[in-house]
Write a structure and sequence with these properties.
The complex is a heterodimer. Chain A contains seven helices and four strands; from the N terminus they run ααααβααβββα. By secondary structure, chain A is of the alpha+beta class. The longest helix of chain A has 15 residues. The chains are: A alpha+beta, B alpha/beta. At the A-B interface, α2, α5 and β4 of A face β3, β5, β11 and α14 of B.
Chain lengths: ~160, ~450
């Protein structure tokens, strides 16, 4: 089963290449934008990027493995990233994270069996004055309580169907 | 369906300079920007020589808002006039210091302020290309910036002949993908070159050998955002906004157990006690203050007895802490400082890039030890061991991440030693009902 690389993504790659005197510079943005579209850094993406940037596979993989946000397997449709760093921890971030674990029945970096949700305990996401906070995909959710998280999960579950 | 609210706090003590356009509808659009002093600093800069612009920045006493507080004018002055290689302007928008969330609204609400600043920096340093490196988690800011950049190009503020001056400057966004280490300027440059974000040996400093081996200035978002105001109103005006050797205002992010969390733009040198009790409304639920992290989790913590201090780089330095990145984290009497340090160290152990042995090994070992200690299995010599490991990280790594892990550690072990002793005496955390399970 292959993941097709869309025309739009290929165009985005070309735009990126035009920005740098050294084309390798486009590597991290290419990986992130590809993951945004496909859901993870698939083998096809790695191959396409190797071709585009003239890089050996190992040099792409070593970069992928360095950056926390890049993943080699799909996450859930809704990737729930709960911050437990200091500002969030002081206002109950860890109990929000625990609540999500129990509610979804999954642990850190796992995905629910239906593929709807995945969970990750993350470091500071820059929402400290709205703590405790989380990001779902790229959206921010702040001033969380267990009840609020329940409502968000319920609403996303309905959306996910 | 995100429910992100306006992070700006409200207080009569605020002095809105960088945030003055935040409340205006459509503040991110170039039309609104142009109606409110937008690109006037650039227009003025284009009538000045490079040296005059740099002198104005030097006069302003602007210091780096990323955390180190290095004088910006001096940093710009290090860039060689003549260079066989093209020079680069890089804006560090990899905001990730725990407790810090000011660059996010600065870009979201007023992207043109930052774009104008980058162009002025380009003019001053005779650079024709710049990049804004945005952390991957702030993905939506890339879209906001790209839109704003498109507007700036179409109105002739970017491109081959800016406002008919003959000056050429191109500016692009660039995204990271989750790495605290990339906030360190040389690691950021490696990341921008498509490599792992490992730090480089300094010297040479980026001003001499930076991006693609060429002279490069790397400045934080908030640092740069001040530049158009300095050009427009003069370095002296800016210097007077703050206090001695610390020009301007600062976006302080008040978080933690504070009654009114928020981002507040206050003059440099604003008293910390007043910030907590008047601006922030004191602690939540009328609790007593135990400690304050004055500028992001890398700073040595202050006890409740140490808050009669002006919030500027020098005053915090005098009491052996740091103004850092402006992330003021307020901690109440019910918080366990051992637990706090354990969580801080979990962060540094996770984010250590692994390049330097003292940091890679030290952070992981301190974290492991504190996990055990906080779970009730502490040994009497543990606090000394923690301090010893931290002392062996301090100053022994290529980049400041090692120091950033060591500084809060050393301060907490020495200032809150009694809390470690209490854990030992009880065989459990006094702040938790039952001993925490070993994780």
């Amino acid at each position: 089963m292959g993941t097709m690389i869309s025309q739009q993504l290929k165009e985005r790659f070309q735009t990126l290449l035009g920005r740098y005197p050294v084309k390798r510079s486009a590597l991290v943005p290419m990986l992130l934008f590809a993951q945004d579209e496909i859901g993870y850094v698939s083998e096809e993406i790695v191959e396409e990027i190797c071709r585009t940037l003239d890089l050996p596979r190992i040099e792409v993989i070593e970069v992928v493995s360095y950056y926390t946000m890049l993943r080699r397997k799909p996450a859930g449709k809704f990737h729930l990233q709960v911050c437990t760093n200091v500002s969030c921890m002081l206002l109950g971030g860890e109990s929000i994270y625990d609540h999500c674990r129990k509610r979804l029945g999954i642990e850190n970096k796992q995905t629910t069996s239906d593929g709807t949700f995945s969970l990750e305990e993350v470091e500071c996401i820059g929402a400290c004055v709205g703590a405790p906070a989380a990001q779902i995909n790229y959206d921010f959710y702040e001033n969380l309580t267990p009840e609020k998280i329940d409502r968000i999960i319920e609403s996303l579950t309905a959306q996910g169907k | 369906m995100s429910d992100y609210k306006n992070p700006m706090g409200e207080s009569p003590h605020q002095v809105p300079v960088l945030t003055k356009r935040f409340g205006i509808e459509n503040s991110a659009s170039i039309d609104v920007y142009l109606q409110h002093d937008g690109y006037k600093g650039l227009e003025k800069a284009l009538t000045m020589t490079s040296d005059q612009v740099i002198d104005e920045v030097k006069k302003s006493n602007l210091r780096g808002r990323g955390g180190a507080g290095f004088p910006t004018g001096m940093k710009w002055g290090f860039v060689p006039r003549q260079s066989p290689k093209p020079k680069y302007i890089v804006c560090n928008a990899d905001e990730s210091e725990p407790g810090t969330c000011k660059d996010r609204p600065l870009i979201e609400k007023d992207p043109h302020q930052l774009i104008e600043a980058c162009i002025i920096a380009g003019w001053a340093l005779e650079s024709h290309q710049g990049y804004i490196y945005v952390r991957g988690e702030y993905r939506y800011l890339i879209d906001i910036l790209d839109r704003a950049l498109g507007e700036a190009y179409s109105k002739g503020y970017l491109g081959d002949n800016i406002q008919g001056s003959g000056f050429k400057f191109n500016l692009y966004t660039h995204t990271g993908a989750g790495a605290y280490e990339c906030g360190e300027e040389t690691a950021l440059l490696n990341s921008l070159e498509g490599l792992r974000g490992f730090p480089r040996i300094k010297p040479p400093f980026p001003a001499i050998v930076g991006l693609y081996g060429a002279p490069t200035v790397v400045n934080n978002v908030e640092t740069l955002a001040n530049i158009p105001h300095i050009l427009l109103n003069g370095g002296e005006w800016f210097a007077k906004l703050g206090c001695e050797r610390n020009g301007g205002t600062r976006l302080f992010c008040l978080s933690g157990q504070i009654a009114r969390p928020g981002i507040y733009e206050l003059p440099m040198g604003f008293p910390l006690r007043k910030m907590i009790y008047e601006v922030g409304g004191g602690l939540r639920d009328g609790k007593k203050l135990k400690a304050v992290i004055p500028g992001g989790s890398s700073c040595p913590v202050l006890t409740a007895d140490e808050i009669d201090v002006p919030m500027d780089f020098d005053s915090l330095g005098k009491i052996k802490s740091m103004l850092g990145s402006g992330g003021v984290i307020v901690i109440d009497e019910d918080t366990c400082m051992v637990k706090l340090l354990q969580r801080i160290m979990q962060f540094y152990a996770h984010e250590s890039c692994g390049w330097c042995v003292p940091c890679r090994e030290g952070t992981a070992w301190i974290k492991k030890l504190l996990d055990r200690f906080h779970a009730g299995f502490g040994r009497p010599d543990d606090p000394d061991t923690v301090a010893d490991i931290a002392g062996n990280i301090m100053g022994k790594t290529l980049c400041p991440l090692g120091d950033a892990a060591a500084m809060p550690t050393l301060s907490i072990v020495s200032k809150f030693r009694h809390e470690f002793e209490e854990h030992l005496r009880l065989g459990a955390c006094p702040h938790e009902k039952a001993p925490a399970p070993v994780s």
